[in-house]
Amino acid sequence: MSVAKLGVGLQYNPELIGWFPFRDQPLDLLEILFDSVMAPLDGPGLLSARGAALLDSVSRLFPLTGHSNYGGDFGFDDLASTPAVRRHVPLARRLGVPWVSDHCFYSDSSWSDVWSSPLQFSDIEAVRVAERARALQEFYGVPLGHENAAYYRVCPGSTLSEAEFLARVVELSGTYLHLDLHNLYANELNHSGAGYSIAQFLDTVPLDRVISIHVAGGRWIDDQYHDLHDTEVPQPVWDLLDEVLSRSRPGAVILEYETQAILHRGTETLDHAGTTEVILADLERARRAWDRAYGDHSRRTTAIRVAA
Ligand SMILES: [Fe+2]
Fold first, then answer.
1. Which residues have CB under 8 Å from 124's CB, separation 6+?
2. What is the pTM of this model?
3. How far is the CA of 227 from the centre of ligand 1 (A)?
4. pLDDT tens across 45-71, in order?
5. How many Å lie between the centroid of ligand 1 and the Cα of residue 304?
6. Cα 150 to middle of ligand 1, angstroms
7. Contacts by 196-201 with C-beta closer than 8 Å and gap 24+?
8. Domains of the chain by range and CATH?
9. What distance in angstroms lies between residue 214's CA and the mean position of ligand 1's atoms?
10. Cα of 256 to ligand 1 centre, how many Å?
11. Ligand 1 centroid distance, CA of 180 (Å)
C-alpha cells in the first residue's frame, strides 16, 4: 500500500499554539497529537472543547495526519479499553487522516510514567505487539506506522535489536513504520557503546514500509543526550534525512518542536520571534531535502495542477 505524498509538515503541538503563526505557513500538512485534542475517557465526548476549537481553526487549511502517543497501544490493558480504541480511532476517522503513527512504548491506564519505557525487544513480545498492531490498524482503517523510540535504557529481557524487533512486528502485523530520525540520532549517541548503529538499523528495517518521518532537535544534559525537540535540527539528522529519502518513499516529513523543556530549566525565557525563526528555517531545510528527493512541484503546496 502506498500513501499520499503530501510533503513537509509541522506537528500541531499545544506548546506552539497561540503564538506560532501556523495559518501563515505553506504547510503541506499538520500532524495532530490525538492526546492533545481528545476528551477525557470518563466523559461522553470525543473532543475536548479546546480540542474542537483548535481543530476548527486549522482543519480547513491543511490536510491533517494523526499521531498517537498515550493510546496504551502496546501495554497490557484490554485493547478495547484503551484510549487508542476509545478516542484515537474515532478521532482518526472523524478527521479523515490518511495514516496514523503511534509510539512504541509501554503504557497503560495510569498514563503517568510511560514516556521512554521501551518495549522489550524479544520474539515473544514481537508476536504479542504485532497482534495488537494488526487489530489496531483494522480499527483505524488506514495505515498505522510505528515510531521508533528514543530510550535511555534497554528493557530487561531484550534479545533482539530495536530494528530487528520493529522489522518482525511489521512483518507479522502488516503494519508500517514511522521513522523518527532524531530518535535514531539520540539512541546512537547514548547507546553506541552497546553497539547501537543507525546504519545497521536502516539496513534491518523494511524501508519500503516507512510512511512518514519525524525530524527534531535535542541537547545534552550531563552525560545523556535528550530528545527534547527544543533546538534546531542537528546537521547529522539532515544528512540522515537525505539518506532515508533516497532509500524510501514516505508520505511526509514532519518537524517536531516543543518549548516546555526550555521553560522548565528556568535559565532561559522563551523568545517567540527567535523560536519562530528556528522553526521556519528547519521547515525550509526539510522542504529542500524533500524537493531534492522527489523533485520540484512534488509537495501538496507546490504541485502544479493540470486542468482536466
Ligand atoms: Fe517523534
1. none
2. 0.95
3. 9
4. 999 999 999 999 899 999 999 999 989
5. 30
6. 9
7. 196/161, 196/162, 198/240, 200/161, 200/163, 201/148, 201/161, 201/162, 201/163
8. 7-294 (3.20.20.150)
9. 5
10. 7
11. 5
